[in-house]
Design a protein that fits this description.
With 97 residues, the protein is of the alpha/beta class. It has helices at residues 3-7, 30-46; strands at 16-23, 48-56, 60-63, 67-70, 73-74, 84-86. A hairpin with a 3-residue loop joins strand 3 and strand 4 (67-70). The longest helix is centred in the middle third of the chain and has 17 residues, at 30-46.
Length: 97
């Protein structure tokens, strides 16, 4: 099956769905976010429907100078059932509460 044929498959015909919540915090190491997202994208191309949700204390954050990341959902009181919680590495030794 070609990649185009596979990507056109509706999620319901895929083997499984993997729900991922990504914790977006100031001071993230970009490679620690992008590397795992690349792996998830590859899984999505194969046979797993990957649904990624970004959560954090702010709806947008400055990232790598002038770059701003947005579309971040507020931190929930409690996480819904997720298959995976991705917490990228930080430049800081500690996080502010």
């Amino acid at each position: 099956m070609s990649e185009e044929q596979h990507n056109s498959q509706p999620p319901s015909t895929r083997a499984t769905t993997l729900r991922v919540a990504v914790l977006m915090m100031p001071g993230q190491v970009p490679l620690d976010l992008i590397g795992p997202l690349q792996v998830l994208q590859c899984a999505d191309r194969l046979s797993i429907d990957v649904q990624v949700r970004y959560i954090g204390p702010k709806m947008a954050m400055q990232w790598l100078g002038p770059l701003t990341l947005s579309g971040i959902d507020p931190l929930p009181e409690q996480l819904p059932t997720q298959d995976l919680l991705l917490i990228p590495g930080q430049y800081r030794n500690s996080l502010e509460p």
